[in-house]
Specification:
Elements lengths: L2 E5 L5 E7 L2 E9 L3 H14 L5 E8 L7 E5 L9 H10 L5 E8 L6 H19 L2 E14 L1 H13 L3 E7 L3 E7 L2 H11 L6 E8 L1
Helix pairs in contact: 2-3
Length: 207
Amino acid sequence: MNAVFTLADHNEVRAETEIKRSRFIASLRRVDDIDQSTAFLDAIRAEFPDARHHCWAYVLGDDPGQRQARSNDDGEPGGAAGVPMLQVLQGRDLTNVVAVVTRYFGGVKLGAGGLVRAYSGAVKIVVDAATLVPRTRRETFTLAVDHADAGRIEAELRGRGVDVAGVEYGARAVLTLSSADPDDLAAVVAALTSGRGELTPAGHYWA
């Protein structure tokens, strides 16, 4: 089973730390696309217009081959803010999330190493404060059965925890099923149909 994690809802999570009089305000939110990520960054900038830096990082997309990851130092020394933030998100297997760390400079320079620790640490704290849930890839299949068997098979599939998205009636009854474990689903279908049922792949989605 392939799984990544995201926030349980779209509510913002926030945590603040102070290092040598510099304030680091980390804000984290679940987002579905780049536009939502940009809107969240704009909202943070509007909320803290007098802050010196608003560094950010996001990871979007469920399928690894299509995942997008970007970060920005927003005026901090190159690689000292955005990249460490992004590494925390990726290290926690997070996706569809954006993190923004707002810094109010306290007058004491932290150095490159100190900035890396400060920004990555701020994101670690806010991630720890968030409620995370797995996003799991579910495979979708269709299953054609005789009309006389459709009701019984549907009921038994549901009773075994199989997600039955719907049933269409034509020459035969066609059930649309999904599962995070296709092998387990195939075994269940074989048992319920005495080996006659054939699953036809119909795509996948992330839940």
